[in-house]
Amino acid sequence: MGEQALSAVRRSVSERLAELIKGDPAWAEQAADVGLVDRAWLESPSDNPFRTAPPGEMVQRFLERTAEQRPSVLASMGLNALQGLSLWRSDPVDHAVPTSLTVMFTDLEGFTRFTAEQGDDAAAALIATHQRVVGPIVRSRGGHIVKRIGDGLMLTFPAPEAAVLAALELVESIEEPLRLRAGVHLGEAVVTHDDLFGHVVNVAARITEEARGGQVLSSVDVREAVAPMSGVRFSRARRARLKGIEPMSLCRIERDAP
Fold first, then answer.
1. What residue spans define the domains of the chain?
2. pLDDT, one tens digit for every residue, the chain (258 residues)
């Protein structure tokens, strides 16, 4: 069989398989969420690879999804069970050189006061609900939850466009009883199996501190990397003094009015 004919057969099989999987929306969502198949492949199987997530990442996604949907499964193993299990990976993730990526931090506005007024049990329940909402949104955009920091998260995305869309979805999805805020920056960072290091990380964290609940703030670097972007509007840049960082220009990211 010629190469052209073989390619046609592969395309046909791929398209039929994608249609079969999409025939059960719940199963398709689960398969994409854990990385068994790529969402891009489901939408356009002829133009995208079947799967890009390495085995180790699939294990981590599965554990994250389990903790989000059934927190009691891992409760007996302690609060750090998910992070501990996620260290078992069959694929190397450490890089000897910095990697270009987009970093996002999120947290819940007023969480400390909420905990003081409502108690630890209410705070723990709020965090569990928060994680069930956040995980699927982040993974649907190709993002990765690097670590959880109290009521906040450190996230990475391979492309700034994905980070922008994820940030908007997150602040829109989490409003009660506390609003979420997010800060986004891009640059080079050193990636390890359970953490992220570099100036871009510090800047993203400081940008988040400048945001209000329900707001997404980014550096102008992010705006310049993605604008113009359909359905998204960046505000006029304003100069901000960030703790421990040189003053820099920030802008709000919002949905563009139809």
1. 93-258
2. 566 666 666 777 778 877 877 787 776 777 777 666 776 767 777 777 766 555 556 656 666 666 566 555 444 444 444 444 444 444 444 444 688 999 999 999 999 999 999 999 999 889 988 888 898 899 888 898 888 888 999 999 989 999 999 999 999 999 889 999 999 999 999 887 668 889 999 999 999 999 999 999 999 999 999 988 989 999 999 999 998 888 999 999 999 876
Q: Do residues 137 and 184 lie in contact, with contact meaning Cβ atoms separated by under 8 Å?
A: no
* CA pair distance 144, 135, nearest whole angstrom: 9
57, amino acid identity: E
* Type of residue numbered 134: V
Task: Report whether CATH 3.10.290.10 matches the domain 93-258.
Answer: no
Name 125's Cβ contacts closer than 8 Å, sequence gap at least 6. none
Cβ atoms of 253 and 218 within 8 Å: the answer is yes
Amino acid at 80: N
Instruction: Give a three-class secondary structure readout of 9-71.
Output: HHHHHHHHHHHHHHCCHHHHHHHHHHCCCCHHHHHCCCCCCCCCCCHHHHHHHHHHHHHHHCC
Single-letter amino acid, residue 229? M
Range list of H helices, 70-110: 72-75, 81-85
